Amino acid sequence: MGNSLRVEGLCAGYGAVQVLDRISLVVKDGETVTLLGTNGNGKSTLMKCIMGIVPPSAGRISATVDGVEHDLAGRAPEQIVDLGIALVPEGRRLFPRLTVEENLLLGAYRRSARAAIARNLEFCFETFPVLAERRRQLAGSMSGGEQQMLTLARALMTAPKILLIDEPSVGLAPILVIHTIDKIRELKEGYGLTVLMAEQNFNQAIRIADRGYVIVHGRIEYEGASREDLANNELIHKLYMGL
Amino acid sequence: MSNKVFAFVALAVALALAAVTQLIPNEYFFTAAYTVLLFVILATAWNILGGYTGYVNFGSAAFFAIGAYTTVFFYNAFKAPLAVGIVAGTLVAGLAGLGLGYLTLRLRGVFFAIASLALAVVLYVFVVNWDYVGGARGAYVLQPREIPFGMPRYIHLIYSVQLLMAAFALVVARAIEKSTMGRGLAAIRDDELAAECSGVPTLRLKIFSTMVSCALMGMAGTTFPYYLSYIEPSSAFSLSYAVNSIAMPLIGGMMSWMGPLIGAVLLGTVQQVVQVTVSSAWNLLIVGVLLVLFVTLAPNGIMGWVDAWRRRKGR
């Protein structure tokens, strides 16, 4: 059973501003692919296009879930979630005035996800014990690291096959970044997920990535076929280390 | 408490209140209480969209007036009784809400607020120039001579009707709040993007809550032409409806159905008392001062205090 994602010649923008310029990328079954690039290069916009939140102006996005290929064009976000694709949005976007448990239950809003709600909730509490302790607490009153765990757990409640993660390290202390990245690897292996992760923190991202793309000004400037490829690439040296 | 039980309790309370208050000899009580109940419905209705979903509607007066003028229209056209006006006014206001929602809710945040304000202005001009419902002169709607249930005056009847409608509005608001949909609305309010990522059908929920909210606001207005037997545009579109329907939930608390009820009863009663003892010109000033006080001292309203107190006690 294959779960994969394919983006071909994708263009998108906001009004007159073009953000994505003919982006093409592939995430194959069971892979962790990272999307590298500094702020304002279009990583989040690409994620939002895949989820149907930002409409593309050209190009094609398709996803194969359990061996069945779906064209994502023109689908509403909730329909894309229904297919088994979930996005962990950037910046720990929670429902701060709802409790931890309510946040998790909202992840299972779709009817397809509601069926497995008890089992998924149990999985989430097993993976993130801290959330079980705080289930009645308001989400907005937790620490940054705990909030990031909750956004990951909420995405898992949708029972995804393909998980998109947008900048999991943003605004977290270095030790928590390491912890978060480790958790993502653990989840990926535990649930057999296919993962596309946008990240600025190059060193952390390639710890768990099988391969990656470098996006600069809305274009894919480099495609690294392996971890080593990315680590030795000149463009990355220039972008990240100023060399 | 399940929805059915709550509906039963609300109905029982409304009926009991209606029955007991019939004994009050002072007629002014009914005039004042009618107005307070009108605000209970408006505030409860506004809160479904404004409080639960987080979309501010500045056009409450427009939907209130749609309800009122639908009654006038059916009265003029068919001499239709009050019941027809109530049903028709609620439906027409709901449809108007559906239209407004469909046109504006694809855009986020402030666009809806601006559009709702614009709708109120456009409708006002429309009604002023529509002679069939009285235009700028206003229209007379005669109270029927026969008053059911042996009530002494017609105001007793529409007060009782308003009481039942307030109970109905509260039942609807509470049912939405406690449902899965209510949780979806809360998600939209807290973070719309995160709601979309979680698979909450945001557009559908927003349009639905707009429709229900606007329908109930219209319902509040349907009895209004009978209240004074006369209606004219500037009273139907009065600024006080728009301001109060925002201020009352804000003061009572916007997270639950009880907030608008408390806010409306409190603020509505204070306004009625001041109107008699001081001057009606003070009404909006009082709302303004209370609003400033609450926004600075208790941003989550009276129910916010209660919740915080409960949480402290629970620990």
Coarse structural class of chain B: mainly alpha
**DSSP summary: helix tally of chain B:** 15
Separate helix tally of chain A: 11
The spatial strand order of the largest sheet of chain A comes to: 6-7-8-3-9-10
Helix-residue proportion of chain B: over 70%
Shape of chain B: globular
* Total number of strands of chain B: 2
| Rg calc of chain A | 17 Å
> What is the average per-residue confidence, as pLDDT of chain A, rounded to a whole number?
90
What is the topology?
The complex is a heterodimer of chains A (243) and B (315).
Chain A lengths: L3 E11 L2 E11 L4 E5 L6 H8 L7 E8 L2 E4 L5 H7 L1 E4 L11 H8 L3 H4 L2 H11 L1 H5 L10 H14 L4 E5 L7 H18 L2 E6 L2 H7 L2 E6 L2 E6 L2 H5 L2 H8 L2
Parallel strand pairs in A: 3-8, 3-9, 6-7, 7-8
Antiparallel strand pairs in A: 1-2, 1-4, 4-5, 9-10
Chain B lengths: L2 H19 L6 H26 L6 H19 L3 H23 L5 H19 L10 E2 L13 H25 L1 H11 L1 H6 L4 H21 L1 H5 L1 E2 L1 H4 L2 H14 L5 H20 L5 H15 L3 H14 L1
Antiparallel strand pairs in B: 1-2
Structural features, described:
Chain A is of the alpha/beta class and 243 residues long. In chain A, 39% of the residues lie in helices and 27% in strands. Chain A has helices spanning 43-50, 77-83, 100-107, 111-114, 117-127, 129-133, 144-157, 174-191, 202-208, 227-231, 234-241, and strands at 4-14, 17-27, 32-36, 58-65, 68-71, 85-88, 162-166, 194-199, 211-216, 219-224. In chain A, the strands form 2 sheets. In chain A, strands 6-7-8-3-9-10 form a 6-stranded mixed β-sheet, sandwiched between helices. In chain A, strands 2-1-4-5 form a 4-stranded antiparallel β-sheet, covered by helices on one side. In chain A, a hairpin with a 2-residue loop joins strand 9 and strand 10 (219-224). In chain A, helix 3 (100-107) packs parallel to helix 7 and helix 8 (174-191) runs parallel beside helix 9 (202-208). Chain A is globular, with a radius of gyration of 17 Å. Chain B has 315 residues and is mainly α. Chain B has one domain (3-237). Chain B is 77% helix and 1% strand. Chain B has 15 helices and 2 strands. Chain B has a two-stranded antiparallel ribbon. In chain B, helix 2 (28-53) packs antiparallel against helix 9 and helix 12 packs parallel to helix 14. The two termini of chain B are 24 Å apart. The model of chain B has no long low-confidence stretch (mean pLDDT 92). Chain A binds chain B through residues 51, 53, 76-78, 81-82, 86-89, 93-98, 102, 105-107, 109-110, 113, 151, 154-155, 157-158, and chain B through 180, 183-184, 186-187, 189-191, 193-203, 255.
